[in-house]
Design the sequence.
């Protein structure tokens, strides 16, 4: 690892850092093994009954039942379905928001700005409750609507920043060859902004997929709710087992999507100059190669 | 409207709990995030690997799952310090990798030339860090840190679904009793959240303007 902060390590320093690294690895692995063993040890509760450890076969035998897997699969499909529908609406809303927000007429621009600020400052969960109670939609549409509005607002801001970061000449050239302002926006500015902001938009869609789990609270039968229901059905003995399986499914879905986002970011987003907008919370795309070369040369966010 | 005024004490109690959660989890996540960021940029390979795996796993786990684990599964392991503490632990753990990433990107964002220049005029490692790199990194880190805190404010609402009585919990309780004024009640709760997030946003903008360095 190269770093300008230190002198290049000599033979002694190299050996020392190897030794520390090995010791550190042993400590970390030892800690994890201890944790796994501690969780696996049978527990004696206050009344003298012995509970089997977490890795005991009696806690995992439900998974030989195909029906359990089918139910979990249904939960995963429900999660993905909500994410897909919400993502489609969020993209459409984002485009509408970005146009309203950068409109020439202030009767459109100012209300749009206020609405966007309001939406971005609100918890998604509160919005779901709002949709559920005020419009008495089902839990599915409450979740979809809240996720679409919230993520649409963030995608809209990203697109607006993308449009604002284009050189002025693009718009002027479009107008000067006789396109109308709207046509210029659609055919000249928007395609470029969308491309430039694609990494941020996809990172936001990962956040959206994660946030579908909030629909658990309003009672939608997504993955976590399915796991909780199965726990209720088979007994709390299996609570951990179901949780770990649900967690594993979520991690697989999210890591795959993040990974795809990173590849797309590497392909398209390398030259996003002067744009300082990070997605809501999950700015996954590492910073530019800097002082401490741990990040690796992934494309910069230009922070 | 009178449903809001009648239940103002309930909302204020929820607001206090939201602020307490925000404060405790914010400070905890800052400390934990500092440690993770330190591990992440350390010269020791195994620490770096551990911190990377930790960050990736936590960031790709939905917050609902983290809090579900804290509120529902930890009590099975005979760990029962009360739901508020459990939610604070969950929010701390969930927020720490985001803090760590913000810190790390701040240090990484300082231009390499700065450190090279410092080294070339003969400053030591400690001097380079404390006089050249850190003053610039801290400035760059504050706005993204505030953004993480804004996200944390909104995330505290999830704790309301796991038996903690904060603003979202208050909203649920009051709407259960006063089903006729749902709109006013939810707008009032939204106003409380906006009070926190908007003021944090104003602080962020002001700090950003004040400490901006030409790069």
Sequence:
């Amino acid at each position: 690892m190269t770093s300008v902060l230190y002198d290049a390590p000599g033979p002694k320093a190299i050996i020392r850092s190897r030794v520390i690294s090995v010791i550190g690895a042993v400590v970390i692995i030892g800690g994890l093994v201890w944790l796994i063993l501690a969780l696996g040890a049978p527990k004696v509760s206050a009344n003298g009954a012995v509970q089997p450890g977490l890795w005991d076969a009696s806690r995992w035998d439900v998974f030989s039942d195909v029906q359990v897997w089918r139910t979990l699969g249904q939960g995963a499909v429900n999660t993905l379905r909500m994410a897909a529908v919400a993502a489609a609406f969020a993209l459409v809303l984002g485009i509408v928001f970005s146009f309203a927000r950068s409109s020439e007429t202030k009767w459109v621009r100012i209300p749009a700005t206020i609405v966007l600020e309001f939406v971005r400052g609100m918890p998604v969960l509160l919005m779901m409750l709002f949709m559920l109670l005020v419009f008495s939609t089902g839990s599915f549409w409450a979740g979809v609507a809240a996720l679409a509005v919230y993520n649409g607002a963030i995608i809209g801001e990203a697109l607006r920043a993308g449009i604002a970061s284009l050189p002025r000449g693009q718009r002027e050239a479009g107008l000067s060859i006789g396109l109308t302002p709207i046509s210029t926006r659609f055919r000249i500015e928007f395609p470029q902004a969308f491309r430039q902001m694609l990494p941020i938009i996809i990172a936001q869609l990962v956040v959206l997929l994660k946030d579908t789990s909030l629909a658990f609270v309003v009672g939608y039968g997504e993955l976590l709710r399915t796991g909780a229901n199965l726990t209720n059905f088979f007994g709390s003995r299996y609570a951990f087992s179901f949780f770990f399986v649900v967690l594993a499914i979520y991690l697989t879905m999210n890591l795959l999507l993040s990974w795809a986002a990173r590849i797309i970011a590497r392909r398209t987003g390398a030259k996003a100059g002067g744009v300082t907008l990070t997605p809501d919370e999950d700015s996954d795309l590492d910073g530019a190669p800097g002082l401490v070369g741990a990040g690796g040369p992934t494309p910069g966010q230009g922070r | 409207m009178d449903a809001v005024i009648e239940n103002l004490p309930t909302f204020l109690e929820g607001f206090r709990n939201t602020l307490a959660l925000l404060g405790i989890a914010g400070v905890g996540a800052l400390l934990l995030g500092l440690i993770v960021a330190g591990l992440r940029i350390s010269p020791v390979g195994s620490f770096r690997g551990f911190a990377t795996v930790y960050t990736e796993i936590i960031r790709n786990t939905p917050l609902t799952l983290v809090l579900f684990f804290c509120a529902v599964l930890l009590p099975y392991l005979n760990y029962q310090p009360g739901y508020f503490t459990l939610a604070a632990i969950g929010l701390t753990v969930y927020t720490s990798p985001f803090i760590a990433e913000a810190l790390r990107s701040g240090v990484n964002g300082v231009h390499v030339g700065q450190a090279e220049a410092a080294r070339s005029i003969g400053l030591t490692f400690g001097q380079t860090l404390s006089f050249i790199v850190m003053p610039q990194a801290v400035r760059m880190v504050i706005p993204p840190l505030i953004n993480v805190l804004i996200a944390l404010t909104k995330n505290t609402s999830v704790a309301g679904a796991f038996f903690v009585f904060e603003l979202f919990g208050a909203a649920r309780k009051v709407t259960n009793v006063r089903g006729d004024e749902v709109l006013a009640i939810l707008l009032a709760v939204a106003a409380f959240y906006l009070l926190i997030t908007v003021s944090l946003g104003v602080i962020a903008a002001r700090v950003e303007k004040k400490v901006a360095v030409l790069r």
Q: What stands out?
A: The first helix of chain B runs from residue 2 to 6. Chain B touches chain A through 69 residues (CB under 8 Å).
